TrEMBL record:
Keywords: Cell membrane, Membrane, Transmembrane, Transmembrane helix. The keyword Transmembrane applies. This is Flippase-like domain-containing protein. GO terms for cellular component: plasma membrane. It is found in: Cell membrane.
């Protein structure tokens, strides 16, 4: 092994150790040192044998399986890729995103697993995340609209009509970049500070409408899984909001959490809990069950899978060996 190769190996090992230590440190801080999360964790363990909690836990593989399926459909557009590799890439991205601002490590985790067209893969990851955001905005805007009309704008019919129209326009504007991505690229060209992002998103128009339908559909299914888990955990902790308003509160909580940038996955916790307790408080629900359900949702869907993803990170091959001409000839023959 030459000096350059040895140096690369040492850098890879150091990077893996750094990610491992950061992930474990954040997990320890969130689960054991933060009083609210620690209490929710103890409550979750105490009620783990109840049917709602077991059902919520059973949906965790479905949640991340749908995300892996979504990434597989996006990645195979770039190169032949197996579902197993896509699943591994999602978990590596989850773990790296756990310790990075706005989860940008998710991009790196998925791109590393690809063998080629890694620049285009940035656009593919963005497309997948944007589809998930679209599902969140479509449902969340309707959820927040319910609360605004029900609790804040009573007696203002003109404002209510304007708000409904604004919600419809917002949803149309969010869907537009998916099916008219060339307009998005043209807009990026017009704004000088954003021009450098155009080359990363240039792959988006190469996806057909059928492929985008499939990815958006998987995103909506995954969103439904999140909502079902939240509802089951609320039930487990004794919160009993009416079904319709309860779904509106869940959707509004997810939207408010998505709109606020975060330093890492741990920082999402406070935003989601503040949103959840306020919206469910309007429905007359006590704070503690809602807080416990929201924190438990984060533990089972983010904290535990991020810890599991460390197994994939430690086995990750960052630098791939280049094939010799003889090997390439053998493969092509």
């Amino acid at each position: 092994m030459d000096v350059a190769a040895r140096r690369r190996s040492l850098l890879v090992v150091a990077g893996k150790l750094l990610v491992t230590l950061l992930t474990l440190g954040l997990l320890y801080r969130s689960v054991f040192t933060d009083a609210a999360t620690a209490e929710a964790w103890r409550s979750l363990l105490g009620s783990v044998l109840t049917v709602p909690v077991l059902a919520a836990l059973a949906l965790v593989p479905a949640n991340w399986g749908l995300e892996a399926w979504k990434w597989w459909r996006l990645a195979r557009h770039l190169e032949p890729v197996s579902f197993k590799r896509s699943f591994r890439a999602v978990f590596v991205g989850l773990t790296l995103g756990f310790v990075t601002p706005n989860r940008v490590g998710d991009y790196a985790g998925r791109i590393i697993e690809l063998k080629s067209r890694r620049l285009d893969a940035l656009g593919a990851v963005f497309l997948g995340r944007y589809c998930q955001l679209v599902a969140t905005v479509l449902a969340g805007s309707v959820g927040l609209l319910y609360f605004l009309l029900k609790f804040y704008l009573i007696g203002y019919p003109a404002t209510e009509v304007g708000l409904v129209a604004a919600t419809l326009l917002l949803n149309a504007a969010v869907l537009l970049p998916l099916y008219r991505s060339r307009l998005l690229l043209a807009a990026l060209t017009l704004v000088r500070p954003l021009r450098r992002f155009r080359r990363f998103l240039a792959v988006m128009p190469t996806y057909s409408a059928r492929e985008i339908h499939a990815v958006l559909g998987l995103s909506c299914l995954r969103y439904a899984v999140f909502c079902a888990q939240f509802g089951l955990l609320l039930m487990a902790y004794g919160a009993t909001p009416p079904v319709g308003p309860g779904l509106a509160a869940i959707a509004g909580t997810f939207l408010l959490k998505s709109l606020v940038p975060s330093l890492n996955a741990l920082a999402d916790v406070g935003v989601r809990e503040l949103s959840a307790t306020h919206l469910f408080g309007l429905l007359g629900q006590p704070v503690l069950p809602v807080l416990s359900a929201s924190l438990s949702l984060w533990v089972i869907n983010i904290a535990l899978p991020s810890a599991s993803g460390l197994l994939f990170v430690l086995r990750l091959k960052v630098f791939r060996k280049k094939k010799s001409k003889a090997e390439k000839a053998a493969v092509n023959s």
